[in-house]
Amino acid sequence: MPSFTLPVLNLGAALPVLIVSGWAMALLLIDLTIPQARRRWTGILALLGVAIALLVLVVQWNQTQGQSQHVSVFGDMLVVDPFALLLNLIVLLVAFITILFSLDYLPKAGIERGEFYPLVLFSISGMMLMAMAADLIMVFLALELLSIPLYILSGFARPRPESEESAMKYFLLGAFSSGFLIYGIALIYGATGSTTLNRVMMAIHSGAMSNPYLLIGAGLILVGLSFKVAAVPFHMWTPDVYEGAPTAVTAFMSVGAKAGGFAAMLRVFLAAFPALSTDWVPAVAVISALTMILGNIVALAQTNIKRMLAYSSIAHAGYILMAVAAGGEFGPSAALFYLLAYTFTNLGAFAVVIAVEREQGRGVALNDYAGLAAQRPWLALAMAFFMLSLTGVPPTAGFTAKLYIFRAVVQSGLIWLALISVLTSVISAYFYLRVVVIMYMREGSATAELRPALSLAVGLTSLGTLVLGILPGGIFALARLLQQILPGS
Description:
Blueprint: H1 15-30, H2 40-64, E1 71-73, E2 78-80, H3 82-109, H4 116-132, H5 136-154, H6 161-192, H7 197-205, H8 212-228, H9 238-244, H10 247-271, H11 277-299, H12 305-326, H13 331-356, H14 372-375, H15 377-391, H16 397-411, H17 415-441, H18 452-470, H19 473-479
Antiparallel strand pairs: 1-2
Helix pairs in contact: 1-2, 1-4, 2-3, 2-4, 3-4, 3-10, 3-13, 3-18, 4-5, 4-10, 5-6, 5-10, 6-8, 6-9, 8-10, 9-10, 9-12, 10-12, 10-13, 11-12, 11-17, 12-13, 12-16, 12-17, 13-15, 13-16, 13-18, 13-19, 15-17, 15-18, 16-18
C-alpha cells in the first residue's frame, strides 16, 4: 500500500491570520447579545482583535529577523517569511485605522450594524492569506475571501440606490475577473503539472517554457490581479463603486484590496514566473503607463472628492506597477514601501472626508471644503499634508515612496516609464492642490465633526505620513529583506 503522510500544518506560524478570522467568527456570535444601542462595543472588540494580531505579528518578526529561511504552513500552501510579515503588518494597520474611524462614521451615516466589523475582519483575513500564499489555489481562495465581504460592504448603506448599485457592479465585474484568474491557474497547472509556486518555477526551468498555455495562463492571472488593484483597462468598476459605497468602506478597499492584489502579483510573478520576465515585464510596464495617464488625467475633471480619490487610487496603482515591472534589486522593496506610505496617506485623506461628510452622503463635493481652514484649521492642515503626500512633495511619505520607485525603474532601464511617471505626477499636482486652494483661499461655511476615534485616526495617519517622509531608511531596509525570498527580484 502506498504510504500517506499528513501535511505539516504549523498553525503557530499562521497565528495572526487565525486570530483575525477566529475573532471575526466570535464577533458574529457576540454581536447577537449586544443591544442595538451599544453596537459600538462590537467595533471596540474588533479593534482589540486586530491589536492582538499585530502584537503576535511583531513577536513573529522578532523571531525571524535576519533569517533567510521561510516557514511552510498547511503543507506548502502558505509560507511565512519577511515578505509576508511586512505585508501583513500593512494589512493589519489598514484594518486598525479603518475600524477606528468607522466607530464614528457608522452612527453618523445611520448604518451602525454589528456585521460590519466581522466582514472587515474576514476581508482582512483574505488579504493576509494573499500575502502568505505559496500556491495558486490559495491565491484564488484568498482573493475570494478578500472580495466577497467587500461586495457586501459596498452595499452596506442600503437602501441608498447608489450603494446598492455599487455593490452589484463590484460583484458582477469581480466575478468576471475571478473567472480569468481561475482559468489562468488551470492553464498553468496543465502546462507545469503543479499549482505550487516553487514547483511551477522548477517546471518552467525544466522545459515547460515552450508550452504556449504557460504564457496564456500567466496573462490571464495578470488580468485577474489587475482588476483587483484597479489597473487600466480593468478599472471600470472603481469610480462608481468608490462613490456609491459608504466612505469608510471606500477607504478600506482603496488601500486593503490594493495591498492584497499587489502581494499576490509580486509573489506569483517574481517567485513563479521570473523566467518569463521578457514576456510579462513589457505588458506590466504598458499597463502601468496607461494606468498613470488615465488615472491622473480623468481625475482633473472630478468635482466629487470620493470620485477624485478613486481616480487617484487608479493612478497610484500605476506607480506601484512600475516597481513590479522594474523588479531587480529595488523594485519589490520599493513597491512594499509605497504600499505602506499610501496606506497612511490615503486613509488619512479619507478620515478627513469622513469628518466633513454629512448624513446621506452629502458633503463630498469639492466646494464643500471651502472655508475649512477657517473653521477647522488643524483638520485643513492635515488634509493639505495628505494632498501634498499624494502629489509627492517632500518631506512627506509620498515623496520618499516615489523616489524609491523612480530609482528602481531607472536602474531597470525603463527610462520611458520613469518619464511618464514624472509627467503624470506633475499633472496630479493640479487636482490635489486644488483641494488645498479651496480650503484656504475660498470663502465658505465648511463644517466638520471630529469625535475622539476619528481624531485619533487623523493623528495616527498624519504621524505615519510624516515619519515615513523624514525617516524612511529603517522601513525601507526592512522591506529589502524580501530580496532573500523572491528569487526573481
